[in-house]
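Limitations

Structures in this collection are predictions, not experimental determinations, and the ligand pose is part of the prediction. Treat each record accordingly. The example that follows, with FE2/S2 (inorganic) cluster as the small molecule, is included so readers can see exactly what is and is not provided: the inputs are given verbatim, and the output is the predicted complex.
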Amino acid sequence: MASDSFVPILTDSELKEGQIIRVQISGRSILLIMKGGKVFGLSNSCPHMGCSIDKGILREYLVMCPCHGWKFDIRNGQYEENSAITLVSYRCKIQNGKVYVEIPAEA
Ligand code: FES
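Predicted complex:
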């Protein structure tokens, strides 16, 4: 049984390998990226100057912000030049043909 905090957001056929999709969940703009058969979820707001990253370029496991080229590892959200700077990561899973994103409970 799925945990209540996982929200179904897409069917798995809507997200192709290497594709970046922006979704809105509970007021959060989130990137979903399919890579290597897994789905990665990241905040869509670049920690540099707040640009949306959904129009960025994906190379292997790095997504590049379209504004000034900062690159982030989609597996953990880390900025490649300073691991102390990260995009918020969201756990994702594919189950029964749907893509789920875990939204943490509000504090
Ligand atoms: S806003 Fe993303 S690199 Fe500058």
